[in-house]
């Protein structure tokens, strides 16, 4: 059995997966707000609860916002800021008396979908979260790419390629840069872009609904979004040439992306044929917590 934990800003969720990926248990509790010690204890209680239920000791993987610094093992870049600067993995290993694997939520999505989801059987999978932020993770041959700096796949804070007049002025990003991919392709970014161009206060979901009902300005906003996503993914394809790109997060539910974006990305890709497939996450919102469990990969059951 594997335990996967998704540590989010509002809830902590645990699943237990059998060796074949079958979910045998799931439970969620609210995240103690702004309290690191209480967060550790809530995680430990969930592990104890799960192991009592399944009747065995299991491997533990955890998905978090942000990531561990490879220099000092401290958390950084987490929007649940009480985690930042804390040795989360070391503290959990002490508390749970075992080795713990930890990855950010986009990496968990990528490993989940590469293991038994929309990228199963593919050699290279790029998993993306298009939600309140934009993150990514790369899995090659079933193995998550970490990188020298622990940021492999973090495309959200690279500049949007090939800016056109519609993209200017470059929006300011919370990371201190301007024109980051996240400032165009997150849900709030879609809403902000629509408001700048057409006014109003529609959110991403309302823009999608209105476009479906025939609203022209919302349709134009979605077309700008799709053109930007095609440009941003064209660069990814030129760089790592994935077999499958899997979308997770709220905007991944926009079905039109899976036909409209590949129809527009060819002009940005340096190849006469494009076999890369763009697919929605098979496990939907559960990909994060399942991927955390799969940080202990298939075939490593006995460890
Ligand atoms: Zn940024």
**Named CATH architecture of the largest domain:** 2-Layer Sandwich
Q: Taking strands numbered 1, 2, ... along the chain, how are they ordered across the largest sheet? A: 3-2-1-4-7
Q: Segments where pLDDT lies below 50 for 5+ residues?
A: none
Coarse shape: globular
Q: List the ions, cofactors and other small molecules found in this model.
A: zinc ion
Distance between the termini: 10 Å
Radius of gyration: 20 Å
What does this molecule look like?
This protein has two domains: 2-107 and 286-293, 2-Layer Sandwich (Nucleotidyltransferase, domain 5); 120-281, ATPase, nucleotide binding domain (Nucleotidyltransferase, domain 5), CATH 3.30.420. α5 packs across α7 (216-240), α6 packs across α7 and α7 (216-240) crosses α8 (257-265). β8 (124-130) and β9 (134-140) form a beta hairpin. It has a five-stranded mixed β-sheet with strand order 3-2-1-4-7. The chain is globular, with a radius of gyration of 20 Å. By secondary structure, the protein is of the alpha/beta class. The longest helix has 25 residues, at 216-240. The protein has nine helices and twelve strands. The structure holds zinc ion. Residues 157, 173, 175, 177, 180, 182 line the site of zinc ion (ZN).
In short:
With 303 residues, this protein is α/β, with parallel strands linked by helices. The chain is 35% helix and 20% strand.
